[in-house]
Predict the structure.
Amino acid sequence: MKSLATLIRLKQRDLDRSRQRLSRLEGQRDQLIAQIGKLTDELTNEYHLSAELADLRGFFGDYADSIKVKQKALAQKVVKTEMQIQEVITEIQVQFAEVKKYELALERFLEEEKRKRKQREQAQMDELGIRNHLFKETV
């Protein structure tokens, strides 16, 4: 049943690709979250600096607004990436189910072949036993 084994390998390869894609997406999401955190830290630092230096207070509002716009854009990218992650997880679940289905079919096929082989061997052993018995009776 080479075709089924080949199909399993192909489906497993597709599953592995999907898992790699999931890993990449999770990495992208983590980078985006880290960027949001970095911007938050920068905003906090600039706030403290503007509180200490009166000359920077006039610029802080515009700077804070631009940081918030960047954070919002990054947050939208995080949401989009999360949606892609959920799609890939669903895809992985479907692919995993397919692989398991084919593996179980192959396992049942191999068990049936083993049972048939044992049955043939038993029939051959029975035939040999009958022939030996008949041979002994004729001698």
Summary: The chain has one domain: 2-138. The mean pLDDT is 91.
